């Protein structure tokens, strides 16, 4: 198992329902519809019930993750119908779930309505935390493969897997060793890195953009591309990196995730010296 992001082209998961019919039908429909329907990011809406996420930087690990969550929790996620790679581009055909991003109309919701939604989200996070990694798995994707996070400014988009949290932390700080000559905040960060962190399953991007609701019900958590087995603080610190267009969300995070102020300061120090923020 790798300890550094040495292979930028690694595909971490196998295809799903990759029949000749499914493959040709998907490519044919995309060729027709992409001329008349705009992409929403990397997602093309095919019908009222189907969509496809595709691109050179899409990895089939996301499809495997959604299947894993669907099979092991009650959390609503899009059903994966097929997933394959063709000519360097990966395609995930999945259920299109009708709903609005949780932030739509948030300021007009009553406090009671907000509490209902955040309570549901908190229970879903708790359910994810009950998942246990397979024996011997370190910081990795759902199946022990590479990870994705465009917020980590290294040479390629996929990185890892890592034998341990210590290997992961060394990667994050570019192999820097603890030295008394370093700034005090760096020394404190590295000392925290050496703590005995538990590994938990993590969505990695619990943004208001990735939570779909209808009325007062959460109907889906989407965009699992950043998910994997991570140190227990990672969910909180990544959630706190809110999209500037949805700055209201920073005020809600502590209501569904356990506040970790020391860990957040640790991660902000890392970003200060080794990040892009």
- Spatial shape: globular
E-strand count = 11
Structural class: alpha+beta
Q: Summarize the amount of helix as a percent range.
A: 25-40%
CATH class of the largest domain: Alpha Beta
Keywords:
17% strand; disordered N terminus; 277 residues; Phosphorylase Kinase, domain 1; Aminoglycoside 3'-phosphotransferase, Chain: A, domain 2; alpha+beta; 4-stranded antiparallel beta sheet
Short description:
This is Kinase-like protein. Helix content is 30%, strand content 17%.
Describe this structure in words.
The chain has 277 residues and is of the alpha+beta class. It folds into two domains: 76 residues, 2-Layer Sandwich (Phosphorylase Kinase, domain 1), CATH 3.30.200; 175 residues, Aminoglycoside 3'-phosphotransferase, Chain: A, domain 2 (Alpha-Beta Complex), CATH 3.90.1200. It is 30% helix and 17% strand. It contains seven helices and eleven strands. It has a four-stranded antiparallel sheet with strand order 1-2-4-3, sandwiched between helices. A three-stranded antiparallel sheet has the order 5-9-10, covered by helices on one side. Strand 3 and strand 4 form a beta hairpin. Helix 5 packs across helix 7. The longest helix is centred in the middle third of the chain and has 19 residues. It is globular, with a radius of gyration of 19 Å. The N terminus is likely disordered. One of its GO terms (molecular function) is kinase activity. It holds the Pfam family APH. This is Kinase-like protein. It comes from Aspergillus ibericus CBS 121593. InterPro entries: AGP_Transferase, Aminoglycoside_PTrfase, Kinase-like_dom_sf.
């Amino acid at each position: 198992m790798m300890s550094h992001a040495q292979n930028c082209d690694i595909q971490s998961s196998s295809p799903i329902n990759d029949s000749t019919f499914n493959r040709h039908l998907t490519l044919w429909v995309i060729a027709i519809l992409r001329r008349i329907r705009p992409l929403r990011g990397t997602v093309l809406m095919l019908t009222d019930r189907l969509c496809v996420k595709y691109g050179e930087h899409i990895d089939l690990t996301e499809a495997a993750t959604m299947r894993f969550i669907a099979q092991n929790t009650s959390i609503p996620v899009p059903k994966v119908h097929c997933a394959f790679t063709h000519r360097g581009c990966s395609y995930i055909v999945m259920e299109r779930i009708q709903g609005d991003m949780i932030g739509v109309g948030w300021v007009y919701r009553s406090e009671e309505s907000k509490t209902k939604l955040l309570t549901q989200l908190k229970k879903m996070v708790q359910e994810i935390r009950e998942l246990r990694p397979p024996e011997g798995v370190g910081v990795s994707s759902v199946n022990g493969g590479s990870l994705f996070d465009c917020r980590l400014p290294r040479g390629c988009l996929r990185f890892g897997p890592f034998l341990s949290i210590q290997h992961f932390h060394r990667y994050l700080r570019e192999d820097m060793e603890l030295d008394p000559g370093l700034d005090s905040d760096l020394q404190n960060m590295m000392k925290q890195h050496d703590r005995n962190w538990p590994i938990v399953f993590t969505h990695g991007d619990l943004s208001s953009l990735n939570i779909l609701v209808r009325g007062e019900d959460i109907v889906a958590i989407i965009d699992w591309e950043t998910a994997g087995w991570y140190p227990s603080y990672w969910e909180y610190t990544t959630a706190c990196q809110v999209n500037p267009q949805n700055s209201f969300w920073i005020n809600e995070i502590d209501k569904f995730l356990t506040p970790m102020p020391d860990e957040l300061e640790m991660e902000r120090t890392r970003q200060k010296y080794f990040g892009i923020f």
